[in-house]
Amino acid sequence: MPLHSKFYEIGQKKLYKNIHLNSKYHIMIPPSSDLDGSEYKGKGNRWRAHKNILNDFTKKYTIISLCSFYTNMIEKKMNRYQHIHHLSIEDIDHSNYARHLNFWDRKGVPEIFRKTFEYFENIHYVSFAISNNQFEKINKDNFHDVINGIDFNISILPEFYDYVLFLEKDDHGSFDFLYNNLKSLKFEFRPIHNFVKKYSCEKDLFKSIKLFNKINLFKNLEELHLGFEVLIDLTDPVLIEKLNKINCKLKKLDLLFWGKIKFVEDIYLEKQTSSIKPKPKKWLFTLDNFFDTKEITSLALNIFNKMFDKEYFIYEKFEFKEILINANLSKLRNLVLSSQFLDLKSIDVSKLHKLIICTDVANDNFVNEIAKLYFKNPTLRLSWWPRFMNSHAFNIFAKTDNIQLSTPDYFQIISCQWPSYFFRSNIISIENEEYTSQNQSLIDDKQNSKSLDILLKNNYSIQELVGMDLFVITCIDESVLKVLKRYEPTW
């Protein structure tokens, strides 16, 4: 926009108001040889956010690569006095380094952060993807006093305070500021060791239970990202009884959990002691019992059940309806469902604005079922992504956010990031079975039945998924990997 344009000032205000910095640097080109599970070594062109992706996030935020932002800043091409309401910084290695330092060996703010805070005079607040963050600084008298107080606090064992960016330099001993101001919390519920065994609440989980029950201390918490480590059994009544309900008025809730775990030793014992086939385990960790859901507008449910130690445990079948039972989600607008297979049973999409689905496998039956959701909500924004990323809690939370901001909003078009060769056609013709069954005279008259042709639109290549950190070879289903090898010419 020309500097002499009368719209220049208006345009600059809009561009600077909300800025999101992505930290994706390269498209990682796979080697020409067959996939062998090794890490990609080659580098291609730098990955760039697509300019034509329109959704709620891209309409609000100016998306810039961290590299371009830093270059323009040090070359003084950016207006340092322009008001920035929110500077959102994606998960980057610059903040990860701090977790390896102990409390007394902190080395201050990383260079990229320090230069940013020194350069810009008027930032409302800054947030970091992997951090427990989103502190508003508007009530501070002097912005530079706040910036000078930024520091990392790292604890020896995983707690709330890992990845915390503190704004009160002289008061590390008190967490009152944190409890009164924190808006977004990421917490991984995990044992104190990494052994593959059945966990004891008293010996292995006592620390996480204690921290979980402290979440209610965060008075203004709006977003909770809660991950349960593998083998945490949410069908165990002993564990469930020790967890308090979280009464924070959450607007966004992201959950990662594993399926109904059953240990092989327990199965063997049941067979030895009873001739009656045991009943399936009951899921006990429900939204209704553990969260105040009335204000939630955004919900993500990530369920994993990958078998990696079959000699020790198996997973029984889990369905999303088991965790959603009786939940009051009257304000829910955006829903993310991430699972091995498609699971839309009892999912009410009638009032949703956007539904993002992530699965380990894809086929024509799944895509037909997804397309039929348009009969229940014609204005629904639908997206379907392959789940090629790993299952670490913090990793998933960051990737889920990135998927949402990278997903375009279409009308009666499925934004499908599965390659087209997984389906017979990119046009899905569907008929409303409920409409036909309710009109008995029309059962055999397909010309009168309600039908739709839905387009599958792909926005990202496999190479771009790699560049977006959404592709890890070791996490891909074997049947899917065979198809990828057959159709991707560079492999």
Give a quick rundown of the structure.
This protein has 491 residues and is of the alpha/beta class.
Written description of the protein model:
- The chain is α/β, with parallel strands linked by helices.
- The chain has helices spanning 8-17, 56-60, 66-74, 93-96, 111-119, 143-148, 176-181, 206-212, 237-241, 264-273, 287-290, 321-324, 364-371, 373-376, 393-406, 433-438, 462-467, 478-487, and strands at 18-22, 62-65, 84-89, 123-128, 151-153, 164-166, 184-189, 223-228, 252-258, 260-263, 298-304, 313-316, 334-339, 354-359, 381-386, 413-416, 427-431, 451-457.
- It is globular.
- Mean pLDDT is 77; it is low at 30-43, 93-109, 137-158, 166-173 and 436-448.
Supply database-style keywords.
single chain, 491 residues, alpha/beta, ten-stranded mixed beta sheet, four-stranded parallel beta sheet, 18 strands, 19% strand
Number of helices: 18
Strand proportion: 15-25%
Structural class: alpha/beta
Shape: globular
Total strands: the figure is 18
Fraction of residues in helix: 25-40%
Task: Kindly provide the radius of gyration, computed on alpha-carbon positions and rounded to a whole number of angstroms.
Answer: 24 Å
Give me the side-by-side strand order of the main sheet.
7-8-9-11-13-14-15-16-18-17
Provide the low-confidence segments as ranges.
30-43, 93-109, 137-158, 166-173, 436-448
**Biggest sheet layout:** 10 strands, mixed
Quick check: average pLDDT? Answer: 77
> How far apart lie the N and C ends?
43 Å
Topology readout:
Layout: H1 8-17, E1 18-22, H2 56-60, E2 62-65, H3 66-74, E3 84-89, H4 93-96, H5 111-119, E4 123-128, H6 143-148, E5 151-153, E6 164-166, H7 176-181, E7 184-189, H8 206-212, E8 223-228, H9 237-241, E9 252-258, E10 260-263, H10 264-273, H11 287-290, E11 298-304, E12 313-316, H12 321-324, E13 334-339, E14 354-359, H13 364-371, H14 373-376, E15 381-386, H15 393-406, E16 413-416, E17 427-431, H16 433-438, E18 451-457, H17 462-467, H18 478-487
Parallel strand pairs: 1-2, 1-3, 3-4, 7-8, 8-9, 9-11, 11-13, 13-14, 14-15, 15-16, 16-18
Antiparallel strand pairs: 5-6, 10-12, 17-18
